[in-house]
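Reopening this ticket.

The earlier resolution said the output was attached, but the attachment link was broken on my side. Pasting everything inline this time so it's all in one place.
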Amino acid sequence: MTSFEPGHIVGEPPPADSVRPKDSTNDAPTSVSRLNETIRGFIASWGSVWVEGEITQWNVRGGSVFGRLKDLVTDAEISIRIWSSTLNRLPADLKVGDHVVASVKADYFPKRGDLSFGVNAMRHVGLGDQLERLERLRVQLRAEGLFDDSRKRPIPFLPHVIGLITGERSDAEKDVHRNAELRWPQVRFRTQHVAVQGERCVPETIAALKLLDADPDVDVIVIARGGGDVQSLLGFSDERLLRAVASASTPVVSAIGHENDRPLLDDVADLRASTPTDAAKRVVPDVVEQRTLVGQLRSRLAMRLSQRVNHDIAQLEQLRSRPVLRQPEALVHTRAQDVEIITSRGREHVARALETSARRTSELRASLRALSPAATLERGYAIAHLNDGAIVRDVNQVPESTAFVVTVARGAFAARSAGETVASSATP
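Inline output:
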């Protein structure tokens, strides 16, 4: 690397007494002065460059400004100084937190070994530039799904503890507390105070969000800030904060600015409130409204129960008014005559059946008597039968001296056959 002495013209060889870092050795070290002069000469060759950043310090001393510019993405910073002659040509409203583009030239002070940048020109970054950058980020985050309703977590109906991230002693904090406590006096808060604009806004808000998100008692987190211009609300469109909100496990409510303010946090948060007051109203239920609702529900329930009971009573009375239930004995009385008639008919039918059966029985008895051997015996006939029970129908069944029994109408007697008798009886 080529080193330069003060006053050296770029493109010319360095003076003979300049020093290169690699040329210094343990035995032949260079001096601090020569090293600083070499560094100064090298830095002077850069010329002016345009840089973009955020003003983080702006101290006016003796008509000049000494401050710092910070990178918009990383924590890198540079020291700047603006002489009074240059300051008179710059916008009068430059301040800490402004997003600017500046023409700077590096200047190294060899006596102290300090590096700073002199400002030749500075202007605010145009609103159009900022909006274009935010719009590109909006498109990117939407494509990643960070705006999708499907990933948004529901806000609890009655949170036990509300985490609040806001500026210390700010109107936003007072609005949230006052309106929430008016709606639900027992509401509790865990409040984290942060810078709501400037370089500390994003890191402090992210740290507070992680702290409240890790608290198991916190049911919902509200990020609240009063209204402001686009410049002051840029921190709530910072990609780092947006991704931290998207990855939080606790529902997050965005309550930034007024009705018309719309940082990207509104799209990533689980719920967008137009103002801090609106956030309190949407996160905490109104105790008066809830009591009124409970009263209405009780009234409706009592009316429904009364209607149901009255309906059932009317139905019961209707059933009881029916004749069969009002005078159940009437059914018996009405049917008693029918029962008597049926019973009488049954008796007559049975009597006729019995008479018919008796007459038939008598006839059968008479026929049976007429055909019965007993009737024949009554007329003087007798029946002879052998000892084995066989009836004697032929004289040849009883040869001489055969024992047999003779049955007559009123008894029986034993007999024995004789030959002559048999012979005479055999004649037809």
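Reporter confirms the inline version is readable. The domain at 130-285 is CATH 3.40.50.261 (Rossmann fold). The chain has a mean pLDDT of 83.
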